[in-house]
Design a protein that fits this description.
8-stranded mixed sheet; 18 helices; alpha+beta; 33% helix; 10-stranded mixed sheet
Length: 646
């Protein structure tokens, strides 16, 4: 028995040695076919490039591509998944004779005769999304790469989405380290090893001197595209153009280089980063650039490639990069909130109109400071002062009452450029607490002052003090009376009391980005209706209700205890700085996921140094608005209210 087993083992070993001595045979790529590949192409085949930003269902753009292919035969190439995209093309986009999909798993398959025959007869070739490093490894310098170039030279259309778009420029981000570099990390070392810029893949005349990026605005990729351009220029020794396409957009390029944008969401488009950067970058050092010019092509624009000229641009924006931080220049913006927890049932048309008027007045007051060239701190102070004076909000004159029938006011302010901050809590006679918080920051060695001490400091500094009766409004007084009754009923029935939104919402806040690209944040509140024992919420606590640094500013409104526990303001900005998350994603994750999961609710505003804005909230409404360089205020109250994007 032993000898038989030994013979079997020796035979198996011999087969293994024989196999090792034989040439390797590539595994053929998976192949999926829909339609009749032998049918006549019904239309005329014309040149064109389709650059899709990675989103699904952009059927209008796809139909443009199919028409360029004469509604004939499409070949899809990919290096992951299966034939799903071919099924979408054939069954949902429709209007084509056939679609073949090849899924590669190695480089050897790029020499497969069947693949090459399909590519040669294809009317249109489409590069699907996936891991772009695989495309570089599998296709660069192979017959497939040569076939793609030959296809375009023959006047046939080539398209791609996500990674399939990223591969089409003369220079490309290869993600060769197995990751996907994010904007903060790319800007921290643009010439470093993580920024893997490749070339010699495709030779497309309309994308010569161009490097592309996808999922652009959705994934906060402007910073990394600027880094891509910088490294590509260091390799090329000449100017390179960056082209970033939003996830909900596609750029359809005609044979003569003129291109239009197809979008499936409002505001989606393509961003052109003009290269030829004046300052050379140094490896292992963060990027510094005095000027980066960008142009956004929208659905009404005409983009010309490879020059990058845009007719009728949707916007033109100038940026700088300071020590690795992307900053919007000459593009001031002010963002405000007047509190989350707005309940439609408690609002009359007159209430809504008054709130909108007050929000617009606050925006105009802050904008006047920005227009005059004043720093962001001045705009924040001016806007919050107006909101504190307006009785519609739970701050200043409209503050809610404590259990003892008093108004206790809290406020804070922070300068993103210097990291300095000031805050006050539990004051009763300061007309505009934001001005006292500002004085604490500017005229003392402290960050926070409370109660009588804060008011003594206010008197020393000439900050306006008023009789406590100034803050009384009948609406807030009645809210206290109702809260006291509900508290008594709950105690009598031995049941827990549910706090209505109006008990702890209504805080006001403002964020500003000035013309020099510097940020500031401020928050002011009357606290919580029926609060006791000198309770202080998140609004005056730096890092909980207010935060500003060199790339992110935040002001919160909601159930303060939960914002304190989450360090909500700092957490949002930390995710932007350290994790490279987009401002919108970071704010939404903290406000609409983390805080509700812990048992709280509310809202916030957030503003990035790059000019991005976010307005997350999880209540029926939140007073909110913004104003840009044009001086036109935009305000909203309820979730369904439109608020134009910047």
């Amino acid at each position: 028995m032993v000898s038989v087993l030994g013979a079997v083992r020796r035979g198996a070993l011999g087969m293994l040695l024989l196999a090792a001595a034989l040439p390797a045979f590539a595994v053929k790529p998976a192949h999926y076919v829909l339609g009749d590949v032998s049918a006549r192409t019904p239309g005329k085949v014309e040149p064109g490039l389709l650059l899709m930003g990675g989103g699904d269902r952009n059927f209008e753009a796809m139909r443009w591509f199919m028409k360029k292919a004469g509604n004939g035969h499409i070949v899809v190439l990919r290096a992951s998944q299966a034939g799903e995209i071919g099924e979408e093309f054939f069954n949902e986009v429709g209007g084509i004779a056939s679609v073949e999909t090849y899924v590669f798993s190695d480089r050897e398959s790029a020499s497969d005769p069947a693949v090459l025959r399909s590519l040669k007869r294809a009317d249109g070739i489409f590069l699907a999304g996936g891991d772009q490093s695989r495309y570089v490894r599998y296709w660069r310098g192979t017959p497939v790469g040569a076939a793609l170039d030959a296809h375009v030279r023959a006047g046939k259309p080539l398209g791609g989405t996500s990674a399939g778009l990223a591969m089409q420029g003369e220079y490309l981000y290869g993600a060769m380290d197995g990751g996907s570099v994010i904007s903060p990390h790319a800007l921290a070392d643009p010439l470093g090893p993580d920024n893997t810029i490749e070339t010699d893949f495709l030779q497309l005349a309309l994308l010569k001197g161009v490097i592309t990026d996808t999922h652009f605005s959705e994934r906060n990729r402007l910073g990394r595209l600027i880094a891509f351009v910088a490294k590509a220029e260091s390799l090329a020794g000449r100017p390179i153009l960056g082209l970033g396409v939003d996830e909900d957009a596609a750029v359809a390029v005609e044979g003569d280089g003129t291109a239009r944008v197809y979008a499936t969401a409002p505001g989606a488009g393509a961003t052109v980063v003009k290269g030829g950067f004046a300052q050379k970058q140094v490896e292992d050092e963060p990027m510094n650039l005095d000027r980066v010019d960008t142009v956004i092509a929208g659905v009404d624009s005409v983009l010309h490639l490879p020059s990058g000229r845009v007719d009728n641009p949707a916007a033109e924006r100038r940026y700088a990069v300071r020590n690795g931080v992307l900053v919007a220049m000459d593009s001031p913006v002010l963002v405000i909130h007047g509190g989350a927890g707005v309940e439609r049932a408690g609002m009359t048309p007159a209430d809504e109109a008054a709130a909108r008027t007050a929000l617009e007045a606050a925006l105009r007051a802050g904008h006047a400071q920005l227009k005059a060239g004043k720093p962001a701190l001045e705009a924040v102070t001016a806007a919050i002062t107006v909101l504190e004076d307006a009785p519609q909000f739970n701050a200043g004159r409209g503050a809610v009452f404590t259990h003892d029938g008093r108004n206790e006011l809290d406020s804070s302010i922070m300068d993103g450029a210097t990291g300095k901050a000031g805050a006050v809590a539990g004051v009763h006679r300061v007309k505009n607490p934001i001005t006292l918080a500002r004085a604490v920051m500017d005229r003392s060695r402290h960050v926070m002052m409370v109660g009588g001490g804060a008011e003594a400091f206010a008197k020393e500094q000439g900050i306006a003090l008023v009789d406590p009766s100034y803050f009384r409004t009948e609406k807030r007084w009645q809210q206290l009376q109702n809260a006291l009754k509900e508290e008594q009923q709950a105690q009598a029935s031995h049941t827990p009391q549910d706090l209505p939104g109006k008990a702890y919402f209504g805080t006001v806040g403002a964020l500003a980005l000035d013309a020099k690209g510097q940020l500031a944040a401020g928050t002011s509140t009357g606290g919580m209706t029926n609060k006791r024992y000198g309770r202080v919420g998140d609004s005056p606590i730096i890092g909980a209700g207010t935060w500003a640094d060199d790339r992110c500013a935040f002001s919160g409104t909601g159930w303060g205890e939960y914002y304190i526990r989450a360090a909500a303001a700092h957490e949002v900005c930390a995710r932007v700085r350290l994790a490279g998350q987009s401002l919108a994603r970071a704010a939404d994750s903290v406000i609409n996921r983390d805080i509700p999961k812990a048992g709280g609710d509310g809202g916030a505003i957030a503003l990035g140094a790059d000019g991005s804005m976010a307005f997350p909230f999880n209540t029926e409404g939140m007073y909110r608005g913004w104003i840009g360089a044009d001086g036109v205020p935009h305000v909203a109250i309820y979730k369904e209210d439109p608020l134009p994007a910047r």
